[in-house]
Amino acid sequence: MTFAESPSAPPEAPRDLTDGAFTDDAPWVLDVGHLDWRAGSAALRAGTARQVPDLIRRRRLPPGGRVVRVGCSLGFALVGWYTIERRRGRREGDPSVSRAGLSRRLRIAFERLGPTYIKLGQILSSGEGLFPVELVDQFKLLRDRVPAESFEDVRAVVEEELGRPIEAVFSRFDPEPLAAASIAQVHAATLVSGVDVVVKVQRPAVASTVRRDLGAMSWIAPALIGRIPVSALANPPALVELFAETIVEELDFRLEADNMLDVANVLASTDQRSVVVPRPHPELVTRRLLVMERLDGFSWGDVDGMRDAGIDTEAVVRALMIAFLEGAVLFGVFHGDLHGGNLFVRRDGRVALLDYGITGRLDETRRLAFLRMLMGGSINDPKMQLGALRDLGALPADTDLDAVVRDFGLDRPPADAAAMAPDELLRQVRDLTKQLLAYGARFPKVLMLFVKDLLFLDGALATLAPDVDLFAEVTQVATYFTARYGARIAADIGIDPRSNPVDMDAVRAGLGVGAEVEQLTYRDLQARRELIRKRMEDHRRERVGHTSRHRFRRP
Predict the structure, then answer these.
(1) Is 337 among the catalytic positions?
(2) Catalytic position from the list 16, 258, 262, 337
(3) First and final CA of the chain: distance in angstroms?
């Protein structure tokens, strides 16, 4: 099944399939325009966003004893790393030793600091490609290291939110959770009607804990600038702001249920039926409780199981990519936290997309900016891309785009990274970082979510479609968008993809290969990336060893 062949709703399908990409065998049918818990969701969302500046405003005095505990935990982690792994890494000429030690110590500190910091670590753990592999691997451990709340506490929250005994609503409610995360935990249950459901229950007092921790984070973050030697963590205050914008919405499950319906509506509007969203219950949704349809399927990493069941795994990842791009650039709504734990592949090959606490939302100006950014990349127009990044807030509004093009060498043919000397590549990376900081570049929330999802999909190709021809895939996706949305794109941004074909030389350059390469699988691309990584590591070891020998011989 390709993305262009997504199954339409069957003739006798539940009527709510016109409003959302849900399952065909509905446990209940939603009247999306008449849901009490959804009333006023736009105002609720706006009010939640307005809380962020105050939550992260740095007070004159530290916010109580919490800031002391956080400061001590992070301080001990950095001191321990500095005195042991950092020195050992330099002595052995192996930077990965230093990174691994720092990552492990930060993970332990986050684990001890509790739900807010565990949530931050979980978000960082899905940033493969944005953060060092050592950091990602350590923080992945936080995904299943959160102790569950007692069933007595869970019962208390459920009954408080429903205003009645748990037995009045559920004939069965499993005391052991299916999963325990930092903000909430998920339980299997059965309604008194006999319908199997999943119940997401917020941890007691987590909302007040998060707000207190954001105050401590905002106090400590400026003191960490330049002290964490991971480039993606080089600006802790900006990271705190991004985190605050992300987590405050997760504290109200009515917004998550609203996100589910909006994403489902986008999928239905594009007739993208290869991805399905669980239905939230029409009545059982509150600030701290979310009851939803229970979906199952193959875990995202069970590629052998999928293939044994006859599922086309290439089509699976392709459908997810198309749905993601359509939502972002055509509707301004996309799932903001794609990772393997949020995805199942059902036996019919459809992707079940779960957990909508983090969702990217774009106003019309930023949606058009995203569209121009992708279009600029496809036709190799760097100035268009920079203008789009400026409109997204990644560059200051008064940025001289022509100067950026000149300073970054974007008007010159790109170099093949695999053919560059390590010294030259390091110098280019350092120069690029300095130039970005000089121009006041930043990483807005929606751009961070978008890039993070793209990196996940990039990794999904590695596991589900390692032998797909990337050039053919790019051509197929571009052809799909041109045929289906060419007129709309032309009306939106004044550039018609039907008369501006994809610049395949630019695609090759973006993937780091020369014009002579006619076919490239993801397996080939991984091998090239590993070659570059190994050469850089070897160069660092050689340079450190040379420096150590020079010091030893110094009279």
Answers:
(1) yes
(2) 337
(3) 71
